[in-house]
Design a protein that fits this description.
Blueprint: E1 3-9, H1 38-45, E2 55-59, H2 63-72, E3 79-83, H3 89-104, E4 109-114, H4 122-137, E5 141-146, E6 157-160, E7 166-170, H5 175-184, E8 187-197, H6 198-208, H7 210-221, E9 224-226, E10 229-231, H8 234-238, H9 245-250, E11 256-261, H10 271-277, E12 286-288, E13 291-294, E14 300-303, E15 308-311, E16 316-320, E17 325-329, H11 336-345, E18 356-359, E19 362-369, E20 373-380, E21 388-390, E22 394-402, E23 405-409, E24 412-416, E25 421-424, E26 430-433, E27 440-448, E28 457-460
Helix pairs in contact: 3-6, 3-7, 6-7
Protein backbone atom coordinates (compact mmCIF):
# COMPACT_ATOMS: atom_id res chain seq x y z
CA UNK A 1 0.00 0.00 0.00
CA UNK A 2 1.41 3.37 -1.04
CA UNK A 3 1.50 6.26 1.41
CA UNK A 4 -1.35 8.72 1.00
CA UNK A 5 -0.33 12.32 1.77
CA UNK A 6 -2.96 14.15 3.83
CA UNK A 7 -2.38 17.89 3.68
CA UNK A 8 -4.15 19.91 6.40
CA UNK A 9 -4.82 23.38 5.00
CA UNK A 10 -7.55 24.79 7.19
CA UNK A 11 -5.73 27.60 9.00
CA UNK A 12 -5.53 31.34 8.36
CA UNK A 13 -2.20 32.37 9.92
CA UNK A 14 -3.31 35.68 11.43
CA UNK A 15 0.10 36.20 13.12
CA UNK A 16 1.51 36.72 9.62
CA UNK A 17 -0.84 39.61 8.86
CA UNK A 18 -0.83 41.77 6.73
CA UNK A 19 0.48 39.23 4.21
CA UNK A 20 -1.78 36.41 5.38
CA UNK A 21 -5.52 37.15 5.16
CA UNK A 22 -8.64 35.09 5.81
CA UNK A 23 -9.27 34.70 2.09
CA UNK A 24 -5.60 34.26 1.16
CA UNK A 25 -3.97 32.38 4.05
CA UNK A 26 -0.26 31.89 4.74
CA UNK A 27 -0.08 28.36 3.34
CA UNK A 28 -0.94 29.75 -0.10
CA UNK A 29 1.82 32.37 0.02
CA UNK A 30 5.43 32.02 -1.22
CA UNK A 31 6.88 33.04 2.15
CA UNK A 32 10.18 31.14 1.93
CA UNK A 33 10.41 30.48 -1.80
CA UNK A 34 10.12 32.80 -4.78
CA UNK A 35 8.24 30.22 -6.86
CA UNK A 36 6.20 27.92 -4.62
CA UNK A 37 3.79 28.54 -1.75
CA UNK A 38 4.10 26.68 1.55
CA UNK A 39 1.27 24.37 0.44
CA UNK A 40 3.02 23.62 -2.85
CA UNK A 41 6.34 22.99 -1.09
CA UNK A 42 4.58 20.53 1.24
CA UNK A 43 3.06 18.71 -1.72
CA UNK A 44 6.38 18.57 -3.58
CA UNK A 45 8.12 17.01 -0.56
CA UNK A 46 5.91 13.93 -0.91
CA UNK A 47 6.71 13.24 -4.57
CA UNK A 48 9.92 11.27 -3.95
CA UNK A 49 8.09 8.93 -1.56
CA UNK A 50 6.18 7.16 -4.36
CA UNK A 51 2.87 8.20 -2.88
CA UNK A 52 -0.76 7.66 -3.89
CA UNK A 53 -3.11 10.48 -4.84
CA UNK A 54 -3.15 13.13 -2.07
CA UNK A 55 -6.04 14.23 0.12
CA UNK A 56 -6.25 17.91 1.02
CA UNK A 57 -8.57 19.07 3.80
CA UNK A 58 -9.27 22.78 3.56
CA UNK A 59 -11.63 25.60 4.41
CA UNK A 60 -14.52 25.82 1.97
CA UNK A 61 -13.70 29.49 1.29
CA UNK A 62 -10.22 28.51 0.03
CA UNK A 63 -11.32 25.71 -2.30
CA UNK A 64 -10.63 27.37 -5.65
CA UNK A 65 -7.33 28.82 -4.44
CA UNK A 66 -6.18 25.39 -3.25
CA UNK A 67 -7.32 23.73 -6.49
CA UNK A 68 -5.45 26.29 -8.60
CA UNK A 69 -2.24 25.77 -6.64
CA UNK A 70 -2.46 22.00 -7.08
CA UNK A 71 -3.16 22.40 -10.79
CA UNK A 72 -0.05 24.57 -11.11
CA UNK A 73 1.93 21.52 -9.89
CA UNK A 74 0.03 19.31 -12.37
CA UNK A 75 -1.60 17.46 -9.44
CA UNK A 76 -4.92 16.55 -11.05
CA UNK A 77 -6.12 13.55 -9.05
CA UNK A 78 -6.24 15.00 -5.52
CA UNK A 79 -9.27 14.63 -3.28
CA UNK A 80 -10.08 18.08 -1.89
CA UNK A 81 -12.30 17.66 1.17
CA UNK A 82 -14.06 20.84 2.26
CA UNK A 83 -14.61 21.65 5.92
CA UNK A 84 -17.86 23.65 6.23
CA UNK A 85 -16.51 25.00 9.54
CA UNK A 86 -13.13 24.65 11.23
CA UNK A 87 -13.21 22.04 14.01
CA UNK A 88 -9.46 21.62 14.68
CA UNK A 89 -7.23 18.75 13.63
CA UNK A 90 -8.99 15.66 15.07
CA UNK A 91 -12.17 16.08 12.96
CA UNK A 92 -10.15 17.21 9.93
CA UNK A 93 -7.95 14.09 10.03
CA UNK A 94 -11.02 11.92 10.61
CA UNK A 95 -12.53 13.29 7.39
CA UNK A 96 -9.32 12.45 5.53
CA UNK A 97 -9.23 8.94 7.03
CA UNK A 98 -12.82 8.25 5.94
CA UNK A 99 -12.05 9.54 2.44
CA UNK A 100 -8.92 7.35 2.30
CA UNK A 101 -10.88 4.29 3.38
CA UNK A 102 -13.47 4.93 0.67
CA UNK A 103 -10.82 5.30 -2.03
CA UNK A 104 -8.13 2.85 -0.85
CA UNK A 105 -9.59 0.56 1.85
CA UNK A 106 -8.86 0.00 5.54
CA UNK A 107 -5.12 -0.49 5.06
CA UNK A 108 -4.64 3.05 3.67
CA UNK A 109 -1.48 4.52 5.22
CA UNK A 110 -1.86 8.24 5.91
CA UNK A 111 1.03 10.72 6.11
CA UNK A 112 -0.54 13.76 7.79
CA UNK A 113 1.27 17.02 7.07
CA UNK A 114 0.27 20.59 7.94
CA UNK A 115 0.37 22.73 4.80
CA UNK A 116 2.43 25.53 6.37
CA UNK A 117 5.62 23.75 7.47
CA UNK A 118 9.03 24.33 5.90
CA UNK A 119 11.62 21.55 5.56
CA UNK A 120 14.78 21.98 3.51
CA UNK A 121 16.49 18.70 4.40
CA UNK A 122 14.25 16.52 2.24
CA UNK A 123 16.58 13.50 2.43
CA UNK A 124 16.40 13.45 6.26
CA UNK A 125 12.62 13.92 6.05
CA UNK A 126 12.25 10.92 3.71
CA UNK A 127 14.50 8.73 5.87
CA UNK A 128 12.44 9.55 8.97
CA UNK A 129 9.20 8.65 7.21
CA UNK A 130 10.59 5.32 6.02
CA UNK A 131 11.61 4.61 9.61
CA UNK A 132 8.05 5.31 10.73
CA UNK A 133 6.41 3.10 8.07
CA UNK A 134 7.45 -0.09 9.89
CA UNK A 135 5.82 1.12 13.12
CA UNK A 136 2.66 2.27 11.35
CA UNK A 137 2.32 -1.10 9.63
CA UNK A 138 2.32 -2.64 13.11
CA UNK A 139 -0.77 -0.55 13.96
CA UNK A 140 1.07 2.24 15.81
CA UNK A 141 0.00 5.88 15.64
CA UNK A 142 3.30 7.56 14.83
CA UNK A 143 4.08 11.21 15.45
CA UNK A 144 7.29 12.92 14.42
CA UNK A 145 9.33 14.74 17.06
CA UNK A 146 11.78 17.39 15.90
CA UNK A 147 15.17 17.49 17.60
CA UNK A 148 15.16 20.87 19.39
CA UNK A 149 17.91 23.39 18.67
CA UNK A 150 16.94 26.11 21.14
CA UNK A 151 14.72 26.59 24.24
CA UNK A 152 11.58 27.32 22.21
CA UNK A 153 8.46 28.42 24.14
CA UNK A 154 6.14 28.44 21.10
CA UNK A 155 6.01 24.64 20.60
CA UNK A 156 4.64 21.73 22.57
CA UNK A 157 7.13 19.00 23.54
CA UNK A 158 7.20 15.19 23.60
CA UNK A 159 9.28 13.27 26.11
CA UNK A 160 10.61 10.22 24.31
CA UNK A 161 10.86 6.84 25.98
CA UNK A 162 12.50 3.60 24.91
CA UNK A 163 11.64 1.78 21.68
CA UNK A 164 10.00 4.90 20.17
CA UNK A 165 7.49 5.06 23.03
CA UNK A 166 5.84 8.38 23.92
CA UNK A 167 6.51 8.90 27.61
CA UNK A 168 4.71 12.24 27.90
CA UNK A 169 3.17 15.08 25.93
CA UNK A 170 4.03 18.51 27.37
CA UNK A 171 2.26 21.80 26.63
CA UNK A 172 4.18 24.93 25.61
CA UNK A 173 6.62 25.66 28.48
CA UNK A 174 8.04 28.86 29.84
CA UNK A 175 11.65 29.72 28.95
CA UNK A 176 13.14 28.15 32.07
CA UNK A 177 11.41 24.81 31.49
CA UNK A 178 12.21 24.89 27.79
CA UNK A 179 15.90 25.21 28.66
CA UNK A 180 15.62 22.22 31.02
CA UNK A 181 13.98 20.18 28.26
CA UNK A 182 16.73 21.12 25.81
CA UNK A 183 19.53 20.31 28.25
CA UNK A 184 18.06 16.91 29.18
CA UNK A 185 18.12 15.58 25.62
CA UNK A 186 14.93 13.60 26.33
CA UNK A 187 12.46 16.01 24.73
CA UNK A 188 11.45 16.67 21.14
CA UNK A 189 9.36 19.42 19.60
CA UNK A 190 5.84 18.27 18.78
CA UNK A 191 5.75 18.76 15.00
CA UNK A 192 2.08 18.00 14.30
CA UNK A 193 3.06 15.48 11.59
CA UNK A 194 1.77 11.89 11.78
CA UNK A 195 1.82 8.51 10.04
CA UNK A 196 -0.77 5.78 10.65
CA UNK A 197 -3.30 3.52 9.03
CA UNK A 198 -6.70 5.08 8.45
CA UNK A 199 -8.45 2.28 10.34
CA UNK A 200 -6.02 2.44 13.29
CA UNK A 201 -6.69 6.16 13.74
CA UNK A 202 -10.47 5.87 13.38
CA UNK A 203 -10.59 2.95 15.83
CA UNK A 204 -8.70 4.96 18.45
CA UNK A 205 -10.84 8.04 17.81
CA UNK A 206 -13.99 5.96 18.30
CA UNK A 207 -12.54 4.50 21.51
CA UNK A 208 -11.45 7.78 23.12
CA UNK A 209 -13.78 10.36 21.52
CA UNK A 210 -16.84 8.56 20.23
CA UNK A 211 -18.71 11.89 20.01
CA UNK A 212 -16.23 13.22 17.42
CA UNK A 213 -16.15 9.92 15.54
CA UNK A 214 -19.93 9.72 15.28
CA UNK A 215 -20.40 13.36 14.30
CA UNK A 216 -17.74 13.23 11.58
CA UNK A 217 -18.92 9.86 10.27
CA UNK A 218 -22.51 11.05 9.95
CA UNK A 219 -21.46 14.28 8.24
CA UNK A 220 -19.18 12.40 5.84
CA UNK A 221 -21.88 9.85 5.05
CA UNK A 222 -24.06 12.70 3.75
CA UNK A 223 -21.27 14.10 1.55
CA UNK A 224 -21.71 15.24 -2.02
CA UNK A 225 -19.27 15.87 -4.87
CA UNK A 226 -19.07 19.27 -6.54
CA UNK A 227 -16.57 19.81 -9.39
CA UNK A 228 -13.22 18.75 -7.88
CA UNK A 229 -14.44 18.93 -4.28
CA UNK A 230 -15.92 16.61 -1.66
CA UNK A 231 -18.53 18.58 0.30
CA UNK A 232 -19.40 17.51 3.84
CA UNK A 233 -22.89 18.01 5.27
CA UNK A 234 -22.59 21.43 6.93
CA UNK A 235 -25.37 21.05 9.49
CA UNK A 236 -24.14 17.69 10.75
CA UNK A 237 -20.47 18.75 10.79
CA UNK A 238 -21.34 21.87 12.79
CA UNK A 239 -22.44 19.56 15.63
CA UNK A 240 -18.96 18.02 15.87
CA UNK A 241 -16.90 19.02 18.94
CA UNK A 242 -13.77 21.08 18.27
CA UNK A 243 -10.59 19.28 19.35
CA UNK A 244 -6.96 18.69 18.38
CA UNK A 245 -5.63 15.25 17.50
CA UNK A 246 -3.24 15.47 20.46
CA UNK A 247 -5.99 15.82 23.08
CA UNK A 248 -8.53 13.60 21.31
CA UNK A 249 -6.30 10.65 20.38
CA UNK A 250 -2.53 10.89 20.80
CA UNK A 251 -2.46 11.56 24.55
CA UNK A 252 -5.00 8.92 25.66
CA UNK A 253 -4.03 6.15 23.19
CA UNK A 254 -1.68 3.33 24.13
CA UNK A 255 -0.53 3.04 20.51
CA UNK A 256 1.41 6.32 20.25
CA UNK A 257 4.99 6.18 19.00
CA UNK A 258 7.41 9.03 18.28
CA UNK A 259 10.15 8.97 15.64
CA UNK A 260 12.84 11.66 16.02
CA UNK A 261 13.58 13.93 13.08
CA UNK A 262 16.94 15.70 13.21
CA UNK A 263 16.71 17.81 10.05
CA UNK A 264 15.70 21.44 9.76
CA UNK A 265 12.04 22.32 10.36
CA UNK A 266 9.86 25.34 11.05
CA UNK A 267 6.14 25.95 11.15
CA UNK A 268 6.60 29.66 10.18
CA UNK A 269 3.96 30.58 12.74
CA UNK A 270 4.87 34.27 13.04
CA UNK A 271 7.20 36.91 11.62
CA UNK A 272 9.98 36.18 14.10
CA UNK A 273 9.96 32.52 13.01
CA UNK A 274 10.30 33.59 9.39
CA UNK A 275 13.21 35.85 10.36
CA UNK A 276 14.94 33.02 12.21
CA UNK A 277 14.52 30.66 9.25
CA UNK A 278 15.48 33.02 6.42
CA UNK A 279 18.97 33.73 5.08
CA UNK A 280 20.39 37.02 6.39
CA UNK A 281 22.75 39.66 5.00
CA UNK A 282 25.94 40.95 6.66
CA UNK A 283 23.87 43.16 8.99
CA UNK A 284 21.65 40.24 10.03
CA UNK A 285 18.75 41.69 8.07
CA UNK A 286 16.19 39.80 5.99
CA UNK A 287 15.30 42.18 3.14
CA UNK A 288 12.59 41.07 0.71
CA UNK A 289 11.30 43.10 -2.22
CA UNK A 290 12.13 46.75 -2.93
CA UNK A 291 13.97 47.61 0.29
CA UNK A 292 16.90 49.92 1.13
CA UNK A 293 18.43 49.69 4.61
CA UNK A 294 21.15 51.93 6.04
CA UNK A 295 22.62 51.47 9.51
CA UNK A 296 19.89 48.94 10.37
CA UNK A 297 20.41 45.50 11.95
CA UNK A 298 18.45 42.41 12.96
CA UNK A 299 15.38 43.44 10.95
CA UNK A 300 12.92 41.66 8.69
CA UNK A 301 11.66 44.11 6.05
CA UNK A 302 9.33 42.98 3.26
CA UNK A 303 7.92 45.18 0.51
CA UNK A 304 5.09 44.04 -1.76
CA UNK A 305 4.29 47.13 -3.83
CA UNK A 306 6.62 50.07 -3.12
CA UNK A 307 10.03 51.13 -1.85
CA UNK A 308 10.71 50.79 1.88
CA UNK A 309 13.67 52.78 3.23
CA UNK A 310 14.88 51.93 6.74
CA UNK A 311 17.53 54.05 8.45
CA UNK A 312 19.15 53.33 11.83
CA UNK A 313 16.59 50.84 13.15
CA UNK A 314 17.11 47.55 14.97
CA UNK A 315 15.04 44.47 15.79
CA UNK A 316 12.03 45.53 13.74
CA UNK A 317 9.60 43.72 11.48
CA UNK A 318 8.29 45.97 8.70
CA UNK A 319 5.83 44.45 6.22
CA UNK A 320 4.15 46.52 3.50
CA UNK A 321 1.19 45.55 1.33
CA UNK A 322 -0.96 47.70 -0.95
CA UNK A 323 -3.43 48.51 1.84
CA UNK A 324 -1.57 48.06 5.14
CA UNK A 325 1.85 48.47 6.78
CA UNK A 326 2.98 46.56 9.87
CA UNK A 327 5.78 48.01 12.03
CA UNK A 328 6.62 45.86 15.03
CA UNK A 329 9.32 45.02 17.53
CA UNK A 330 10.48 41.56 16.47
CA UNK A 331 10.11 40.33 20.06
CA UNK A 332 6.36 41.05 20.00
CA UNK A 333 5.55 38.86 16.99
CA UNK A 334 2.80 36.94 18.80
CA UNK A 335 0.83 40.16 19.38
CA UNK A 336 -0.08 40.69 15.71
CA UNK A 337 -3.28 38.80 16.50
CA UNK A 338 -4.35 41.69 18.72
CA UNK A 339 -4.26 44.07 15.76
CA UNK A 340 -6.19 41.60 13.60
CA UNK A 341 -8.88 41.32 16.29
CA UNK A 342 -9.17 45.12 16.47
CA UNK A 343 -9.53 45.38 12.70
CA UNK A 344 -12.26 42.76 12.82
CA UNK A 345 -14.03 44.38 15.78
CA UNK A 346 -14.13 47.75 13.99
CA UNK A 347 -15.89 46.24 10.98
CA UNK A 348 -12.96 46.74 8.60
CA UNK A 349 -11.91 44.24 5.93
CA UNK A 350 -8.11 44.38 5.97
CA UNK A 351 -8.02 41.07 7.89
CA UNK A 352 -10.05 39.34 5.17
CA UNK A 353 -8.91 40.50 1.74
CA UNK A 354 -5.93 41.94 -0.08
CA UNK A 355 -6.65 44.69 -2.58
CA UNK A 356 -6.21 41.94 -5.19
CA UNK A 357 -8.89 39.29 -4.62
CA UNK A 358 -8.61 35.85 -6.21
CA UNK A 359 -11.63 34.17 -7.76
CA UNK A 360 -11.90 30.87 -9.67
CA UNK A 361 -12.19 32.83 -12.93
CA UNK A 362 -9.27 35.22 -12.27
CA UNK A 363 -8.69 38.27 -10.04
CA UNK A 364 -9.97 41.74 -9.32
CA UNK A 365 -8.21 44.67 -7.68
CA UNK A 366 -9.86 47.71 -6.13
CA UNK A 367 -8.16 50.82 -7.54
CA UNK A 368 -10.40 53.53 -6.08
CA UNK A 369 -13.35 53.54 -3.68
CA UNK A 370 -15.69 56.38 -2.75
CA UNK A 371 -19.14 56.80 -1.22
CA UNK A 372 -20.97 56.13 -4.49
CA UNK A 373 -18.29 54.77 -6.82
CA UNK A 374 -15.71 52.01 -7.04
CA UNK A 375 -13.10 51.34 -9.71
CA UNK A 376 -11.75 47.81 -10.21
CA UNK A 377 -9.13 46.25 -12.43
CA UNK A 378 -10.40 42.81 -13.51
CA UNK A 379 -8.50 39.90 -15.06
CA UNK A 380 -10.39 36.92 -16.49
CA UNK A 381 -8.38 33.82 -17.39
CA UNK A 382 -8.73 32.32 -20.89
CA UNK A 383 -11.87 30.19 -21.21
CA UNK A 384 -13.34 31.33 -17.87
CA UNK A 385 -16.66 33.02 -17.18
CA UNK A 386 -18.18 35.02 -14.32
CA UNK A 387 -21.64 34.08 -13.09
CA UNK A 388 -24.82 35.26 -14.83
CA UNK A 389 -25.94 37.93 -12.35
CA UNK A 390 -27.60 41.23 -11.62
CA UNK A 391 -27.33 44.01 -9.01
CA UNK A 392 -30.10 45.89 -7.20
CA UNK A 393 -28.06 48.95 -6.21
CA UNK A 394 -25.26 49.56 -8.69
CA UNK A 395 -24.63 50.11 -12.38
CA UNK A 396 -21.38 49.10 -14.09
CA UNK A 397 -19.30 50.38 -16.99
CA UNK A 398 -16.74 47.97 -18.49
CA UNK A 399 -13.77 49.14 -20.58
CA UNK A 400 -11.61 46.44 -22.19
CA UNK A 401 -7.87 47.09 -21.83
CA UNK A 402 -6.58 43.93 -23.53
CA UNK A 403 -7.99 40.66 -24.79
CA UNK A 404 -11.54 39.88 -25.92
CA UNK A 405 -14.70 40.02 -23.79
CA UNK A 406 -17.88 38.11 -24.57
CA UNK A 407 -20.61 40.06 -22.78
CA UNK A 408 -24.22 39.25 -22.03
CA UNK A 409 -25.93 42.60 -21.41
CA UNK A 410 -29.63 42.04 -20.94
CA UNK A 411 -30.98 40.50 -24.16
CA UNK A 412 -27.83 41.36 -26.14
CA UNK A 413 -24.66 39.30 -26.55
CA UNK A 414 -21.68 41.29 -27.79
CA UNK A 415 -17.93 40.93 -28.34
CA UNK A 416 -15.68 43.71 -27.08
CA UNK A 417 -11.99 44.16 -27.84
CA UNK A 418 -9.32 46.61 -26.75
CA UNK A 419 -10.60 50.18 -26.05
CA UNK A 420 -14.26 49.15 -26.45
CA UNK A 421 -16.82 49.41 -23.63
CA UNK A 422 -20.36 48.66 -22.49
CA UNK A 423 -22.71 50.07 -19.85
CA UNK A 424 -24.84 47.82 -17.63
CA UNK A 425 -27.73 49.60 -15.86
CA UNK A 426 -29.03 48.70 -12.40
CA UNK A 427 -31.14 45.53 -12.45
CA UNK A 428 -29.98 44.26 -15.85
CA UNK A 429 -28.91 40.60 -16.05
CA UNK A 430 -25.35 40.31 -17.33
CA UNK A 431 -22.31 38.04 -17.63
CA UNK A 432 -18.67 38.33 -18.65
CA UNK A 433 -16.61 35.64 -20.39
CA UNK A 434 -13.13 35.38 -21.89
CA UNK A 435 -13.43 33.37 -25.13
CA UNK A 436 -9.84 34.05 -26.14
CA UNK A 437 -6.41 32.49 -25.59
CA UNK A 438 -4.86 35.34 -23.57
CA UNK A 439 -6.00 36.93 -20.28
CA UNK A 440 -8.81 39.46 -20.55
CA UNK A 441 -8.07 42.69 -18.70
CA UNK A 442 -10.68 45.39 -18.19
CA UNK A 443 -11.53 48.33 -15.98
CA UNK A 444 -14.89 48.28 -14.21
CA UNK A 445 -16.43 51.49 -12.88
CA UNK A 446 -19.29 50.90 -10.43
CA UNK A 447 -21.71 53.62 -9.34
CA UNK A 448 -24.70 53.45 -7.03
CA UNK A 449 -26.06 53.68 -3.51
CA UNK A 450 -24.51 50.39 -2.30
CA UNK A 451 -21.31 48.80 -3.64
CA UNK A 452 -20.89 45.74 -1.39
CA UNK A 453 -19.91 42.37 -2.84
CA UNK A 454 -23.10 40.85 -1.42
CA UNK A 455 -25.23 42.85 -3.88
CA UNK A 456 -25.10 39.97 -6.36
CA UNK A 457 -28.08 37.88 -7.46
CA UNK A 458 -26.68 34.84 -9.30
CA UNK A 459 -28.82 33.00 -11.87
CA UNK A 460 -26.20 30.48 -13.00
CA UNK A 461 -22.57 29.84 -12.09
CA UNK A 462 -20.20 27.16 -13.42
CA UNK A 463 -18.31 27.16 -10.10
CA UNK A 464 -21.31 26.24 -7.96
CA UNK A 465 -21.26 29.39 -5.82
Amino acid sequence: MKIIPVILSGGVGSRLWPLSREHFPKQCLPLTDTEYSLLQQTMLRTVALDVASPIVVCNEDHRFLIAQQLQALKVKDASIVLEPKGRNTAPAIALAALEAQRCHGNEALLLVLPADHVIRDVAAFEATIQQAVTLANEDALVTFGVQPTRPETGYGYIRAGEDYAVAEFVEKPNLEKAQVYLDSGDYLWNSGMFLFRAKAFLDELALHREDIFQAVSQAYQERSEDLDFVRIDAELFAQCPEESIDFAVMEPTKKAKVVPYAGDWSDIGAWDALYDYADKDVDDNVLLGDVMAEGSTNCLIRSESRLIAAVGVQDLVIVETADAVLVMDKNNAQDVKKIVKRIQAEGREEHMYHTTVHRPWGTYQTVDLGNRHQVKRIMVKPGEKLSVQMHHHRAEHWVVVSGTAKVQNGDREILLTENESTYIPVGVVHALENPGKIPLELVEVQSGSYLGEDDIVRFSDRYGR
